Amino acid sequence: MAAGESRTRDLHSREESVVASARGHFERTLVQVRGAVVGSVAAMEHPSSGEAANYGEVFLRDNVPVMFHLLLEGRFAIVRHFLAVCLELQSRSDQTRGIFPTSFVEQGEDLIADYGQRSIGRISSVDASLWWPVLCWLYVRRSGDRAFALDTAVQEGVQRLLDLVLHPSFEGTPVLFVPDCAFMIDRPMDVWGAPLEVEVLLFGSLRSCCHLMDLAQWDRPCGLRQKRLERSHRWLRDLRAYLLKNYWVTSKTVQVLRRRPTEQYGDDQHVNAFNVQAQVVPAWLQAWLEDRGGYLIGNMRTGRPDFRFYSLGNALACLFGLITAPQQRALFRLVLRNRQDLIAEMPLRICHPPLDAEEWKEKTGSDPKNWTWCYHNGGHWPSLLWYLGSAVLLHERRHPGSDSALMEQMRQLLEDCYALQLTQLPRQRWAEYFDGPTGTWVGQQARTYQTWTLVGFLLLHHLLRIEPKDVELFAIDPLLPPPGGRTVL
Ligand code: GLC
After folding, report:
1. At what angle do helices 385-398 and 451-461 cross, to 10 degrees?
2. What residue ranges line ligand 1, CB within 6 angstroms?
3. What per-residue string of b and e applies to 420-446 under the rule 16 or more CB within 10 Å gives b?
């Protein structure tokens, strides 16, 4: 046998054994509620095991990739049970009506949910609430379980969530205003206001609610629901226009931005609605964007946009179809160009650049976990890679042949990232996150056998090696609108 051939065979069998052991670890993360498997705990092992840490709970956001994995495996009953338990836990109380819990755990006979009242900093997770309709819709579409979507409890849950998010506000904008720490970044990082990830999730969530309401509308038309549908569609249109106008940057838009007038009063056409001064445009942006790169910035607030790059929000903007196909390709160019920052030794950095020592003190309240280059502050999270991978693979399927040189490079980048994880993650016991400017060091307080690290790897493996077309599962809108432009299950 030729040497090359035997090397390939070795690689192949190593890959198979890593995948098999990841599957084994993943199965151990599954827990039951009321006698049936409901989903996964956040991590199997952590430094503070035995203390009151909450990594042994079932987190909604950590279970997003878990549910996708289970859907791909056809284990629909678990996903349905998860959705039903979350729905049962959706808050009905006066001040939080409509929100879904960050996490839950069964203790004896009781199901205990955390809406923020038990977590460090006492912050509730807005992303968890927004993910629920997305998961629900993707479950209904993949499993064909229309009856679940039509269930009164599900439709009422959707209404409660819509009542919570689609209401008048002091800002009068289509975005959701949230406190610091309201999503995956759940420790202070100066991400209050309208952070990208939350707004993109709002977009995906509203689209999913519309699909779920559409199904009920065909089944039992109702005037009130029709009004809610129309309202949601208007909100969606305004939200998308708002994000594309105020968050999307390229080298061209930055030139315009730097020369815009400031201090504009009145109703007339204003080009600088947020009164952003040229001085706030950071110096690193020029080299980062280069000529043909683009991305959605992290946040827009009066006078203080957040130009940091957030990987998850940008990847989701592709998957949910919020940004256009040419914009997606500009984003891919940006990732390629800044590979050393975003990928380095462990894909993917959560946000870039990190806050420096001074900013860290002021903006995080000296949070030791979020020290420069650590954790949420420029740390590398392997669980984020499959989101970018899916965005690239979905783009390839939906726009075959467009800029094939670029897409070829992106495909190679994914292969390289996958190979990196294949070698590193088992050695580092499937750690939660990695620190340092190149993401080489296992995070100081990283949990090991972290569920979304394991399952994120399995998802990418599935898409690259087993069934690429399954990436369609993650797209909220189906590939071809059927006659009449409506989704048919
Ligand atoms: C950390 C992460 C959060 C995650 C939780 C459980 O708090 O910041 O996003 O949900 O751990 O894994």
Report:
1. 20
2. 42, 59, 61-62, 184, 186
3. bbbebbbebbbbbbbbbbbbebbbeeb
Q: Mark residue 368 as left, alpha or beta (left: phi above 0; alpha: psi -120 to 50; beta: remaining).
A: alpha
Per residue in 354-409, pLDDT tens?
999 999 999 999 999 999 999 999 999 999 999 999 999 999 999 999 999 999 99
Q: What is the pLDDT of residues 253-311, one digit of tens each?
A: 998 888 888 888 887 667 788 889 999 999 999 999 999 999 999 999 999 999 999 99
Q: Which atom of ligand 1 is nearest to the CA of 62?
A: 10
Tell me how crowded residue 236 is: count the other CB atoms within 10 A of its CB: 19
Residue where the block lists tokens 């990283």: 446
Q: Which atom of ligand 1 is nearest to the CA of 61?
A: 10
Q: In what helix (H) or strand (E) does residue 164 lie, and over which residues does it extend? A: helix 152-165
Q: Where are the alpha helices (DSSP H) in 348-480?
A: 357-364, 385-398, 404-427, 451-461
**CA 293 to centroid of ligand 1, rounded, Å:** 30
CA of 357 to the centre of ligand 1 (A): 23
Ligand 1 centroid–CA 237 distance in Å is: 31
Task: Compute how many other C-beta atoms are within 10 angstroms of the C-beta atom of residue 121.
Answer: 13
Probe residue for ligand 1, chosen from 114, 186, 374 as the CB with the greatest number of ligand atoms within 8 Å: 186
Going by CA atoms, what residue is nearest to atom 6 of ligand 1? 42
Pair 351, 309: CB distance under 8 Å: yes
Indicate which atom in ligand 1 lies nearest the CA of residue 186.
Answer: 8
- On the 0-12 / 13-18 / 19+ scale of CB atoms within 10 A, 53 is middle
Taking the centre of ligand 1 as the mean of its atom positions, its distance from the CA of residue 186, in whole angstroms, is 7
Whose CA is closest to 351, among 317, 390, 380?
Answer: 380
Query: 114: which residues sit within 8 A by CB, 6+ positions away?
Result: 54, 57, 101, 102, 103, 104
**Closest ligand 1 atom to 42 CA:** 12
Q: Tokens for 352?
A: 């870039």
Return d(Cα 450, Cα 28) in angstroms, integer: 11
Contact 104, 114 (CB under 8 A): yes
Q: Which atom of ligand 1 is nearest to 450's Cα?
A: 12
pLDDT in tens, 63-111: 999 999 999 999 999 999 999 999 999 999 998 999 999 999 999 999 9
Domains along the chain with CATH numbers: 30-263+272-485 (1.50.10.10)
Distance CA 422, CA 14 (A): 9
